[in-house]
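Summary for the steering committee. One of the milestones for this cycle was to obtain a three-dimensional model of the protein with 6-chloroguanine bound, which we needed before selecting residues for the alanine scan. The sequence and ligand used are listed below.
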Amino acid sequence: MKIDIVTIFPEYFTPLSLSLLGKAQGDGLLEISTHNLRERAHGVHKSVDDTPYGGGAGMVMMAEPIAQAIDPLVNADPELVMIIPTPSGARFTQERAVELSTAEHLLFLCGRYEGIDARVPEYYREVAQIRVEELSLGDYVLAGGEVASLAMIEAITRLIPGVLGNPDSLVEESHVLRDVSGDESAGETLVEYPNYTKPPQWRGLDVPEVLTSGNHGAIARWRLEQARARARKLT
Ligand code: 6GU
């Protein structure tokens, strides 16, 4: 997968060279490039933002410097999927992550301040005929799209075959919609059951006996029960 990131703060994305995603880039499974929006700005101040029409607080990111950064990427690959993180977008869910993990090429456009001139998504959707997704992590407001992009990139890319060391980790984890036919939990959204490791007793707390019983059927039932109980507590 190819990922381009347009931002005024490329330094936010240095952690993508660590750990799993660093290795995935070394292995050629993933290619991530950042593009500094400030380099596309003109004038002595290299402004990328201006005051909002209609008045109000804050600044709005101007369309043209963004277009200067994005056009070469879109022209080179009109099939790319543009993702604009914004608290006013549709909810980014595990289902979205799964769907986007099969894309060949993603472009993240990070806004700061009060957001991006609304003609940017309109232009790339309606005129350039690009797929544009405005996505939100949840009902709270971050200072910009950079941290949201990092979260989405991690959620999406760990689903690419070969990125995770142990692909079995994907099967039973939180928020995976299980649809294994014959599975008792088919279609349910579960959260992960509690996990334990050595030692069997720690500061007076024991590992649940069923986990050391060797009874795989009983262990599976216990874990499903625990996952359901946790899911109920969240809603
Ligand atoms: Cl995607 N962006 C910003 N700025 N704030 C958010 C968000 C995104 N999701 C939740 N809060």
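Key point for the committee: The longest strand covers residues 81-91.
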